[in-house]
Target: Gamma-glutamyltransferase family protein
Amino acid sequence: MITFDSSHYPYPSQRNVTYGKNGMVATSQPLASQAGLDILKKGGNAIDAAIATAACLTVVEPTSNGIGGDAFALVWTKGELHGLNASGPAPQSISIEKLKEQGVDEIPKFGWIPVTVPGVPAAWAELSERFGKLPLKEVLQPAIDYAREGYPLSPTLAYFWERGAAAYSSVLKGEEFENWFGTFAPNGKAPKAGEMWRSEDHARTLEAIAEANAEAFYRGELAEKIDAFSKKYNGFLTKEDLASFKPEWVKPISVNYKGYDVWEIPPNGQGLVALMALNMLKEDTFHSRDDAETFHKQIEAMKLAFADGEKYITEESEMSSSLSDLLSESYGRERRGLIGEEALMPEAGEPSKGGTVYLATADGEGNMVSFIQSNYMGFGSGLVVPGTGIALQNRGHNFSMDPDHDNALKPGKRTYHTIIPGFLTKGDEPVGPFGVMGGFMQPQGHMQVVMNTIDFGLNPQAALDAPRWQWIKDKQVLLEQNVPNHLATALSAKGHAVQVTHQSGSFGRGQIIWRDPVTGVLAGGTEARTDGAIAVY
Model:
C-alpha cells in the first residue's frame, strides 16, 4: 500500500482519513453513500453498491447528474480492470449541414440541439448484468424511495441548486422548458437547505428502469415519451436512436508514473489529457508540493496536454493521431522539452502518425469501482421529459461545427467527453479508485491527486484537501485562496496570469479509496468542497 507521509503537506486536512475493512462507499452526498453501504450489507458487492449510489445521486444531487446523462466506469474484479463507456452518440438525423440550414453556427448549451442519447440507465443495467449479485430492482430501491418520499437538501447542494435555478430562469425561454421549472423549481423557487424535495415522476421512471433492466428507457414506454417530446419541439433525438444504443466495454489506457500505473477510459473521454500530462513529468523529481517549480511544471504540462486533447480527442476511430503515439515516452519527452522557466501559450503538438458526480466503492471480496455520471453543465439541457422526471443532458455542446476538426459533429458520433473515472494499480495489485469531477477541471484534478499521493505521500483525505490550481486558458491560472501567497507571487513572476479566488466550486469534487494489498484495509477520502461523505463498515 502507498505509504502516507503528510510531512510534505504543512496544512491540516479538513477531515481525517477514513479506514474500514468490509466495505466502503465515498460520494458527494451522505444519503447516497449510506444507500450504497446498505446494499453491501444486504449481500451486494461493490458493483451493486456503485449502481445503488449512482441511482441515488440522480435524486439527491440533480444539480450534477441525472437519468438522462452519460456514465463511465472502471471496475476491478477477479484480478482484472474493466472499462465501460456508456456515453451516448449524437442522433442519426443531426448534422452540421442541417444546423447551418437553420442558421446555427455554434452548438447551443440548451434546448434540443445539444441533446445526445443518454447512457446512464444502460450503464446501470450493463454493470448489474455482468458483475452484480443482487437484482437491479433491489439495487435501485433506495433511489426510488428517496424520489417518492423525499429528502432534505444538504447545504452545498442547496447552494448550487439555487444558483442553477437562477441561471436557468434567465436563459430558458419557451414552453419546452416549463417541465424543468415544474420539477426543479416548484412554486417558482429552488428548494433551500433542509427543505424537502421529492419527485414522484422520477420514482416511477426508476421503477420502470428497474423492472426490465433499462429496456423501458430504450425500447419501451419511456422511449416513447422521449420521442414524443422531441418530435413536439422539432428535436433530433428519436426512439430509433435510443433503441440502437448499447454501452461499450473498452480496454482501459494507462501510463506508468513512478512505479504506479494510472488508468483512464480511452477516448472519447478526456482521461487521455491527465495521462499525457503525467507522462511529461514522470522523470522529474519534486521535492515539495508547495513549491513554485512544482506548480509551474504541473500547470505547463497540463496546458500542453489540453492543447493536444482539444485537437485530437473524439471517437477513437475518428482521431487523426493514435493513442500509442500520444502516450509514447518519446512524445512525452518532446512535450516536456517545451516547459521552461516562463509560462507559455499552449499549442497542440504533432506526434508521429501511427458540472458531474463521482463515486468510489469497495467491498470485502476485493471488488472496487470507479464510477462517474453527469448531465453536463449542472442540470443539463433544461429539458425535462413530461411525466418522467428525466432531465436530458446537453453533451452535444462539445462537438465542433468545423467539418475538418477531429471532433466535428456527425450523426451517430460520440463527442469529446469531460467525465472521467480514474484507477491506480501497482504491479498486479489494485491500489484503488479515484476521481475528481467538474468539467474541464477533471484531468487537472486527477493529475494533482495522483501527484499528491505518489510524489508527496499524502493520505487520501489530505490528497483531496490540498489546495488546488486550475488552468483556465492561455496563461490564465486560478488558485484557491488557501494556496500560500508566496506561490501566487512566484507564479506571476514566471508569466502566469494568476487570480486567487475564495470560490471553491470550480476546483472539482473528488473521492478516493485505497486498499492495503496485505491486510485488505480500506483507506478513504471524501471531498470537503461539497457535502461529501464516506460510509464504511
Notes: The longest strand covers residues 429-437.
